[in-house]
Amino acid sequence: MFRRKARHIQEADLVKSKNKKTSPREFRDSINQPRALYAQSDPDKFRRRIALFKKSGVLGNTPDHILIQRATTLKQLKEAYELVHDIFVEQQYINPQRNNIRVRIFESLPETATYVAIVNQKIIGVMSLVPDSVDIGLPSESTFSREIGLLRSKNQTIGEITNLAIASEYRRSNIFAALTQALYAHALYCGMDHLFTAISASHAPFVECALQFDRWGEERNYSHEIEDLVVGMRFDINNALDRGRTVDTILGDQAFLFDFFRDGNPWIQRAPLEDALATKNFLTMKTLNKLFGGSDSILAKCTPQQLSGICRRWSPDLYAQVCFGLAANHAA
Known about the structure:
Layout: H1 24-31, H2 38-41, H3 43-56, E1 67-70, H4 74-90, E2 113-119, E3 122-131, H5 145-153, E4 158-166, H6 175-190, E5 194-199, H7 204-209, E6 214-215, E7 220-221, E8 229-236, H8 240-251, H9 257-263, H10 267-282, H11 285-292, H12 304-314, H13 316-331
Parallel strand pairs: 4-5
Antiparallel strand pairs: 1-2, 2-3, 3-4, 5-8, 6-8, 7-8
């Protein structure tokens, strides 16, 4: 849903023209330049856009019949990644997978947090947060290596928002904002400094205006197989509350951002318990074998370093059991 094949984007403050080559130093200097808040550049226009977002329903309170929560069970994770697969195939972001489910090495990590929106016990929205690590890295690392590398060079902790998928009938609701709010609370609990995400240019204005993300990389192709044009965006967690206060002052009666991030964020209190439950349920033979076993397991495509990282996270015993089942399936 959130990465459409946009051909043109507005020039961002922090990016260079595609036709102009930049040295590493020029890139570092340009991306480090202080930038004014989006809201401060044209306050009247900003207030009108926020009012329009609220009127359309993409900002505001989550309806009572929609439940936002951490996916903590095998059933929820499986249904979530099946929804991601189906939507991404429909939008031609990826090619169909054999088992109609999208799982990568990043979904095999216990520390990956997947949040879902549920209506009538059916998952209709998904968003995941992948923490950065030395052995596995981040989903967008090959596409936005310079931008991510710059954040790492400051010894800051990064997490990437990925698996952004919402069922078509709910795309004009506030589900995207609500899932982002939940992921922010989890990132805060994990002590992250920055969030990064790759989204289509057509959705970047909402993320930049309403949620106060910054542009962090020019438009480029995300996929090695098909055309999937995206831009990089990042969110400074350490500056979130100060920015929220500043933006709310500009919004006046429409103020919502500080409450969105802090006082009105119900997931801040829930994050520790949900994380413990999700990790406990994830690290079981049933869950790991169902998601990552089978003849087309992602484990068969991992490098030795990646496999070592997975083994360390799962425990040698669980890793051996899943790999034994994988070997048996191949032998059969």
